[in-house]
Amino acid sequence: MTGAELTKILTLRSVWIVTGVILALHLLVSYLNVGTNIEAVRAITPDGTIELFADDPQPAGRAIIDFLVASSFQMGLFLPGLGVVIAGQEFRTSQLGQTLLAVPHRGRLIVAKAVATAVYLLFAALVVAGASTAFMYAAVRDWNPGLLVSPDAWLGQGKFVVFAVLTGLVGFAVTMIVRSTLAGVAVIVGLATVTMTQLLAAFSPALDALFPLSAGRNLLLDPVVNRLSASPVHAMAVLVAWPLVTTAVAAFLLARRDAR
């Protein structure tokens, strides 16, 4: 069943279009940064200090890995859109009803859909992480290319992939709940806005830390140079809880609604 759902995802033109737009945006932003990064690496001081940003000297190894992970993380704003588009297709031209004729067990169906969506999101996240690494390699190849395959780099990019898959599943589940692509996009944008405006963080960091994008920041970014609202362990718990809860709600509602 999961294989059939993954095949369905791979045949959706809208999914490939959204994926292409996200990857094109990532490539453009990375390309615009690569020249600056090359110059910064060339200017690394004898004591191993780099200025990736003006007047912000940092230890070169740590700063480059942080920038590598952050360059992947910036796509975290858009990857949940893939989950939204995948789920939204089910409510076009009564496609969900047709699917339920073949698979009447609704709980099993939504699990299969969620797993298939996670597999596709994993593919997209790995491509993003790979592109980030390729552009950073252009900057560090004459200095320390091995840094990009160090344990810290693998850990950072691995955490990004986990974040991307989990938040993408939130987009999928929310859309299954609201039964509309547009409404799903609105919810995801609203959740991201809470973090991007930092208004909630200023008044209640503990509440801000419960939102998925905030949890991503707390998981991926360096607390030494970023003001974070919770620990990485707390962040991982939040990121796991969001898709579990929203998918459970989606399954519950799917079992009690008609299939239109």
Question: Keywords, please?
Answer:
260 residues, mainly alpha, two-stranded antiparallel ribbon, 12 helices, 2 strands
What is this structure, in a nutshell?
The protein has 260 residues and is mainly α.
Q: How many discrete structural domains?
A: 1
Helix content range = over 70%
**How would you characterize the largest beta sheet?**
2 strands, antiparallel
Total count of helical runs of at least 4 residues = 12
How would you write the strand order of the largest sheet? 1-2
Strand tally, please? 2
| Computed CA radius of gyration, to the nearest angstrom | 20 Å
Structural class: mainly alpha
Q: Note poorly predicted spans.
A: none
Helix-strand sequence: HHEEHHHHHHHHHH
Q: Give the overall form.
A: globular
Quote the distance from N terminus to C terminus: 21 Å
Would you spell out the secondary-structure blueprint of this structure?
Elements: H1 2-10, H2 13-42, E1 49-50, E2 58-59, H3 60-73, H4 80-88, H5 95-102, H6 106-140, H7 151-178, H8 181-197, H9 199-203, H10 205-208, H11 212-220, H12 232-256
Antiparallel strand pairs: 1-2
